[in-house]
Each structure stands twice: as structure tokens, then as C-alpha cells.
TrEMBL record:
Protein's recorded name: Amino acid ABC transporter substrate-binding protein
Domain Solute-binding protein family 3/N-terminal, first and last residues per copy: 44-265
Transmembrane segment boundaries: 6-25
GO cellular component: cell envelope
InterPro entries tied to this protein: SBP_3_CS, Solute-binding_3/MltF_N
Domain of life: Bacteria
Main location: other
Cell compartment(s), UniProt: Cell envelope
Swiss-Prot/TrEMBL keywords: Membrane, Signal, Transmembrane, Transmembrane helix
Family statement drawn from the similarity comment of this UniProt entry: Belongs to the bacterial solute-binding protein 3 family.
CDD domains linked to this entry: PBP2_peptides_like
Gene3D superfamilies per record: Periplasmic binding protein-like II (3.40.190.10)
């Protein structure tokens, strides 16, 4: 009888230990997701950025994120007493980080789409960002229809994949990074590349030894021609703070100064 009681106590102790371990694991997992509307205790905003979207967001020689978008969110956060922790991620992972509530906000030349409006909270549009088609001087492109028989390089997952399809462009070659598409252009593997105008202008300026042509395609009345920041659906306070910050930066002229600093005319 005593032996039986001892055995049951051992089993009970083992069960309690297992429950304790599972509880600890559950608590540890929950800390990886920032599910509250704001991180009040640390006053830190987790911001997802892509490292290959110059001049909006990219990495300097010291490994730090820089660019127009980086300065915009840093300015707004600091004005509201927050610090920013940048999560530097590949393009597709940047969106997953928001979906999983790991990042409070994502900003990196993100265009408005109805699909994104359904999945995330979107900020007010903050900069006009028409498409830019870049080609070398020996290739003449006067309109989107000229691209139909050509090989077009775009970034995988970008809205320009759909734009190409809408214009009947069949030979679309996607790459993980837009700079890889630019390399394809200068190496003769594609006839043109398409991205946000400011991005292809940045490549053209950074490599002046390659003479290029630029075709702008966009409409100031089209929502899809504007950049937005995205946030999880539960981050209303963060997105409201961002929108108010944009309004303040426009009023003071700070947003215009950053545009003049980072964008080509």
C-alpha cells in the first residue's frame, strides 16, 4: 500500500513539472509577439524595413538603415517619445512580420493596394511614387506598350508584376532584390526594369557610367501611385501617431526637406 502511494505521488510530481514547463514555454513564446496596441513599458516601436529599397530604405557601410522612409519614421517616433528598433528583413518577410505582430509597423516604399488595405492598417499616403521604367540608351521606350515584346525585370512580390500583366508584358523576370534586376539590365539579360521611379533613378545616379532612359508611369489621382506604411489591425494608436506625425511634418516643411534630400528631381 505504501508503495502504491509513493508511486502516485511520483506521477503527480511529474505531471506538475510538465505543466510548469509547458506554462513557461507558453510565456516565452508570447514575448516574441507584440500584441498590445503600443509597447508602453519600453516606449519602443518595432519597425520592419527592407534593406534593398534605396533611397527609401537601405543599409549604409556601417550596417545601419538609412533613407527617406527611415528618417520619416524616426522623426515621428522621437517626437512622440519613442525609440525605433528596426527589423531589417527581406521584402516578403517584412509583411509576414507585421501579420504575425512581431513588428508594429512596416515602411519601405510600400505601395497602396486594395489587398493590403484588407490585410493591414494603412497610413495616409505620404509621398507620390509613380512607376519608373529604366532602360539603357540603346533601347527606346516611349510608352508601356513598347514593353510588350521586351524582357522586363521586376522585384519578386512587388506590384509591378501585376502592372506588367495588365499591360500584356509576357517576358517578366523577377528577382529577390531590385538591384539584381538592375544588374540584369546592365548585363543585357533584360531590356528594361520597372520599380518605383525614385528607386530606378537612384540606380541610374549611382552608376553614371551606364547611360539610361527613364519612362515615368503614374497618376497623381491613383492611390496605387503613393507610398503607405502598414501596421497590424490592432495597432490603431501607432498608425494614428504616424498619420499625425506626417501632418505635422508637412506643416513644418520637414517632409519637403527630406524629399529634397533623398529624391532626384
Amino acid at each position: 500500500m505504501k508503495h502504491t502511494v509513493f508511486f502516485n505521488q511520483g506521477v503527480m510530481i511529474g505531471i506538475i513539472c510538465i505543466i510548469g514547463l509547458l506554462s513557461a514555454c507558453g510565456k516565452k513564446q508570447s514575448t516574441t509577439q507584440n500584441t498590445d496596441d503600443t509597447n508602453i513599458s519600453t516606449k519602443t516601436i518595432q519597425v520592419a524595413v527592407n534593406s534593398n529599397m534605396p533611397p527609401f530604405a537601405y543599409i549604409d557601410d556601417k550596417g545601419n538603415p538609412i533613407g527617406f522612409d527611415v528618417e520619416v519614421i524616426t522623426h515621428i517616433a522621437q517626437k512622440n517619445g519613442y525609440t525605433v528598433k528596426f527589423n531589417i528583413l527581406p521584402w516578403q518577410d517584412m509583411f509576414k512580420s507585421v501579420e504575425q505582430n512581431i513588428s508594429d509597423l512596416a515602411i519601405s516604399s510600400i505601395s497602396y493596394t486594395t489587398e493590403r488595405e484588407g490585410k493591414y492598417l494603412l497610413s495616409n499616403p505620404y509621398v507620390y511614387m509613380p512607376a519608373g521604367v529604366l532602360s539603357l540608351n540603346d533601347t527606346t521606350i516611349n510608352s508601356m506598350s513598347d514593353l510588350k515584346p521586351m524582357r522586363l525585370g521586376v522585384q519578386d512580390g512587388a506590384i509591378f508584376v501585376d502592372v506588367a500583366k495588365e499591360h500584356g508584358i509576357e517576358h517578366v523576370i523577377t528577382k529577390e532584390k531590385m538591384f539584381l534586376s538592375f544588374q540584369d539590365l546592365i548585363n543585357g539579360k533584360v531590356d528594361a526594369i520597372m520599380s518605383d521611379k525614385q528607386i530606378v533613378q537612384h540606380f541610374a545616379k549611382s552608376y553614371p557610367q551606364y547611360k539610361t532612359n527613364l519612362l515615368e508611369y503614374g497618376n497623381v489621382n491613383d492611390k496605387g501611385s503613393y507610398a503607405v506604411a502598414i501596421a497590424p489591425k490592432n495597432k490603431t494608436q501607432i498608425i494614428n501617431m504616424f498619420n499625425q506625425g506626417l501632418s505635422d511634418m508637412r506643416a513644418t516643411g520637414e517632409l519637403t526637406k527630406l524629399e529634397e534630400k533623398w529624391f532626384e528631381k
